[in-house]
Amino acid sequence: MFGDTKAFSGFSSNDIPAAKKFYGETLGLNVSESDGLLFLHIAGSNDLVIYPKENHEPASFTVLNFPVKDIDGAVDELARRGVSFERYEGFPHDEKGVARGQGPSIAWFKDPAGNILSVIEE
């Protein structure tokens, strides 16, 4: 039934202007707005939508992963842009906040609405 549909994903934010600035300026994504929605134009993928929700509650899981070839370079650049990294129990993190040794190296961070994102080494 849905074999040929071009599905897309979305999640909420309680502050679309802050999300637009974060995703567009801090992360450097191509973003656009239409009818109160924020669209993230992800290379090689369908657009993602961030929709406004006044009673937004951040997801307790990772909503968006960014694969990178050089996680140390990506983490260093994100930190330079003001991003701080989360540390989760059960994962050995280095001084930068990168979890290593249990699968691919990964670093988690949050958007302005508290949604969890990651950079993950390919």
Topology of this structure?
Layout: E1 10-13, H1 16-26, E2 30-34, E3 37-41, E4 48-52, E5 62-68, H2 71-80, E6 85-86, E7 106-110, E8 116-121
Parallel strand pairs: 1-4, 5-8
Antiparallel strand pairs: 2-3, 3-4, 6-7, 7-8
Structural key phrases:
four-stranded mixed beta sheet; 122 residues; globular; single chain; 2 helices; alpha/beta
The helix content, as a percent range, equals 10-25%
State which percent range the strand residues make up: 25-35%
Number of DSSP-assigned strands: 8
Derived from helix and strand composition plus strand pairing, the structural class reads alpha/beta
Shape: globular
Give the biggest sheet. Answer: 4 strands, mixed
Question: Rg to the nearest angstrom?
Answer: 15 Å
Query: Secondary-structure element order, as H and E?
Result: EHEEEEHEEE
* Low-confidence blocks of residues: none
The pLDDT mean sits at: 95
Q: Supply the number of helical segments.
A: 2
Question: How widely separated are the two ends?
Answer: 32 Å
What's the arrangement of strands in the largest beta sheet?
Answer: 1-4-3-2
Brief summary:
With 122 residues, this protein is an alpha/beta fold. It has helices spanning 16-26, 71-80; strands at residues 10-13, 30-34, 37-41, 48-52, 62-68, 85-86, 106-110, 116-121.
Describe the structure.
With 122 residues, the chain is α/β, with parallel strands linked by helices. Helices cover 17% and strands 32% of the residues. It contains 2 helices and 8 strands; from the N terminus they run E-H-E-E-E-E-H-E-E-E. Strands 1-4-3-2 form a 4-stranded mixed sheet, covered by helices on one side. Strands 5-8-7-6 form a 4-stranded mixed sheet. The protein is globular. It starts with 9 loop residues before the first strand and ends with a strand. The mean pLDDT is 95.
